[in-house]
Amino acid sequence: MTSLSVDPKATDATKAAPGKSRAEKALARFHEEDRLGEGLDTRILAGLWPFIRPHAKWLVISLFLLLAGSGLAVLQPWLMGRTFDAFDQPDAARTLMQMGALILVLKLFEQSIAFPQVYLMQLAGARAAGDMRAHVFRFLHTRRLGFFDRTPVGRLVTRVTNDVDAINEMFASGTLNALGDLVRLVLIVVVMLQRDWQLALITFVAVPPVALGVMWTRRRIRDAFREIRVKTARMNAYLNEQISGMAVVQAYAREEKSSLEFDDINEAYRQANNRSIVFDAALDAAIELVQSLCIAAVLWYAGVRSLSDRVSFGTLVTFVAYIEMFFVPIRDLSARMTQLQSAMAGAERIFQLLENNEEDAPVPAASEGQAEKVEKKDESIAFELDHVDFEYKPGVPILRDVSIQAGKGEKIALVGATGAGKTTVASLLLRLYEAKEGHVRVFGRDVKATQRDELRKKFAVVPQEVFLFPGTIASNIAAGDVEVDEARVVRALERIGALDLFERREGGLEAKVEERGSNFSAGERQLIAFARALYRDPPILVLDEATANIDSDTEARLQKAVWAAMQGRTALIIAHRLSTIRAVDRIVVFHKGRVVEQGNHDTLLAQGGAYARLYQLQFSRGEAHAAE
Ligand SMILES: Nc1ncnc2c1ncn2[C@@H]1O[C@H](COP(=O)(O)OP(=O)(O)OP(=O)(O)O)[C@@H](O)[C@H]1O
């Protein structure tokens, strides 16, 4: 796809930022996205086409009906004029009845095609937008984690919601009706000129000032809308922050201060809205005024001219009707242009996102031949880091020359100060990130040469911060399975000794899990994560032990869960509890991204090195007693 880069010039939001705090500037930059696009952009339209194409037939029918509707709308005042002209003809009564019937039929026809026209246009738009949302969501699933580290969540959510909606709006709000408006304008101009060119010119004199006025006002309205979007985003961000941090707000009696802050944000939002309302109302009133002036001018001129050349009654009726139809499309054209620009800007941002090439490669990165080369067929090794260097950000090394091997069934503990790089090792094994140097192998195969799904099926991860999805206890334990296998859920819970704990809850295993598992304690969430690991029953368990304090009953259950989960499989434990550390086969000690010691508890203790110091530190804190 060609590059659809965004114009880098600063926007109002960033220009308005001098002297502001860093946070405010960052916020302003974030809202910079509210800029509008360049109107019709063929590259963007080409990018949208694959989403529209499957629904294009509805769009074509709708546009055809739109053009037909525009023609019918213009035909009626013309017929009306002919009807009035027939008044002084001898067979006026018959002509009037015929024309009346014809106008009625045309009106009915026009109205009856209006429904399918609007419906089909919106249908095509809603379906294309739905496909696009699904596409972007699937695309996000296939990005590497590093991409999410760098991209704010809010921005990605906006791509799937607001930006796609902006494209949908193009269909829903009738932006494409601009085509009908244009046809209508051209037809009106032609009929007016043909009917009476002098009266037509009187009307057209008003067009340039109206067009200029509309453009000026629209620009103000557009600025006001942009301001509204910025204020809305600010309000959303503030509400999000306040509601998420409600516990702190209440605990520190911050309600009054928060209310004052919110009042400011609310007031700014109201004022931005006010500006758009004022300009919108003024524009409507001005258009009405111009229409009335045009009608008055036409009537006046017809009066003046009637001294020498009588203007027919029918012509006057036709002109009055056309003038009423004439300025509305001019007013709407610019609003539709704004909507189109907004849709193009939304589409451009989506395409920029879709250009990201950090794919979480589903298939082996190396060709088959290369894959063979990196394979190391030692069936007894479950996983291995072979002289691995790694950095999250270029130039900031996190792991340096790390080599760790785990034999099948071996239990390995990683210990070290916080930030030493232990969790990173687990992420590399799952190929959530890729090593800069060296090799990461799982069952003898380089992770880069393994199918993503095949690799990840070999692991169950119990993270420090367990993430629960809304659903039930059972559906969370069976995470990843569309159909929950009840018997397996029960067996998994039994094995970690937590079945009774969850069955006691109201609703049992079908008890509701709220968003992010907020109705479960940290310990309970950990237990669910252990059950999840056992349900999956993979050959390797990765356990990032939680450091949070939990009550002694849950602690005992967790201990049991750890042992149950480790049974019969290889385990990599990022260990914090001494009881866990002492019972593993091998301890790997990390310091600033390097492996500084390896061995079992007794050997390392006897060495009196880094591990012995860490152990003494924890022991002196009294944790060792708890672990006895
Ligand atoms: N996604 C990330 N992007 C950038 N830097 C990161 C990322 N994740 C971790 N780091 C940094 O990498 C270093 C190692 O982090 P890691 O989580 O592996 O440490 P750890 O030893 O597991 O720490 P802890 O015991 O606190 O869990 C830290 O300095 C951390 O700030």
UniProtKB/TrEMBL annotation:
The chain crosses the membrane at residues 58-80, 199-217, 313-330. Gene3D superfamilies: ABC transporter type 1, transmembrane domain, P-loop containing nucleotide triphosphate hydrolases. Residues 383-617 form the ABC transporter domain. The keyword Translocase does not apply. It is found in: Cell membrane. Residues 1-20 are annotated as: Disordered. Residues 330-357 form a coiled coil. PROSITE patterns: ABC_TM1F (PS50929), ABC_TRANSPORTER_1 (PS00211), ABC_TRANSPORTER_2 (PS50893). One of its GO terms (cellular component) is plasma membrane. Keywords: ATP-binding, Cell membrane, Coiled coil, Membrane, Nucleotide-binding, Transmembrane, Transmembrane helix, Transport. This is ATP-binding cassette domain-containing protein. Residues 60-342 form the ABC transmembrane type-1 domain. Its main location: membrane. It comes from Polyangium spumosum. InterPro entries: AAA+_ATPase, ABC1_TM_dom, ABC1_TM_sf, ABC_transporter-like_ATP-bd, ABC_transporter-like_CS, P-loop_NTPase, Type_1_exporter. GO terms for molecular function: ABC-type oligopeptide transporter activity; ATP binding; ATP hydrolysis activity. It is a multi-pass membrane protein.
